[in-house]
Amino acid sequence: MIRKRMTAYLTVGVACLAMPFGAHADEMDDLVAAAKAEGQLTVIALGHDWCGYAALIQGFKDKYGLTVNELSPTAGSGEELATIKANIGNNGSQAPDVIDVGLVFGPIAQKEGLLQSYKVQTWDEIPATAKDPEGQWYGDYYGVLSFVVNKDVISKSPADWADLLDPAYRKSVSLPADPRTANNSILSVYAAGLAAGAQPGAAAARAGLEFYRQLKDSGNLLPGFGSAASIAKGETPITTRWDSNGITYAENFKGNPPLDTIVPASLTVAGVYAQAISKYAPHPHAAKLWMEYLYSDEGQLGYLKGLCHPIRFDAMRKSGKIADDMLTKLPATGNNLVFPELSHLVEAGEVIAKEWTSTVGAGSK
């Protein structure tokens, strides 16, 4: 598909300066000035223990002197879109400027007319499969779906998806969030279906639903969702989470309780997340500046320090910006890591959202 050069318009006072294809050096000065005039950025669903966002937010504030208003740090992707819709026409503190959502939710938000186009300076280093050609959404990082296990409760960690059906794990297995709206849970169900041998797309979604129905019927699936707190308390001793979550939790817990982060042996999936700017952003220039920051070398390495895989990983590795010693904390994935195609994810997400309650019915608050 031919890439279109998009033009964003930056207003500083009464001047209007054209900014094609992201901001270049002199245009960055204008963008910074316009963002500072707005004075604030409103983000949503950026937990401080998620992919290094505590340091990234602080780095952005330190670098540009803007206030960052943080909404609903534990919100799921569907909730982020709902928040944009609920605040159309509201320029107050409850209207998000930017969203960070599971990849499947980028096209959904675009279809619903919730986004505006903007291409960052490093646009060419974002893989084509992880971005909208017109710049309405674009991948920022990805995680590797893993089992996070509380070793005080579980003496032998599961090695693969089928192991979760073991009677030894009765009342022990949980999803991380509501699978009708949360990307990490949608991909948990989808990965289980792929591991069962189903074809990508709707077939894998339904196979994954069947697997979780078996977990429920066996008594292994818990009705609640696995948060850092519930994992620490032993209330959800086995939960699917991104590898970065498990490693971060283990560091924060300092061995109390001890945790395992296990990459499923047969197959697991990469979960790509995406950034986008709300069409109704009260602070559109601050939003664009935030995007430039996140997709710069500094921002991408910030994700890596937060134990997530930056979307520019391949290009930065090739250019020597990511060295071997930066990867020591990340678990090895071998050859079992699958990057699902976007069309399959959209299809699977629709099936899981529609059929989760009727097929499984557990853990859906």
UniProtKB/TrEMBL annotation:
**What are the protein's UniProt keywords?**
Plasmid, Signal
Domain of life (superkingdom): Bacteria
User: Signal among the record's keywords?
Assistant: yes
Q: Which residues form the signal peptide?
A: 1-25
Q: Does the keyword Signal apply?
A: yes
Q: What is this protein called?
A: ABC transporter substrate-binding protein
- Species the sequence originates in: Rhizobium ruizarguesonis
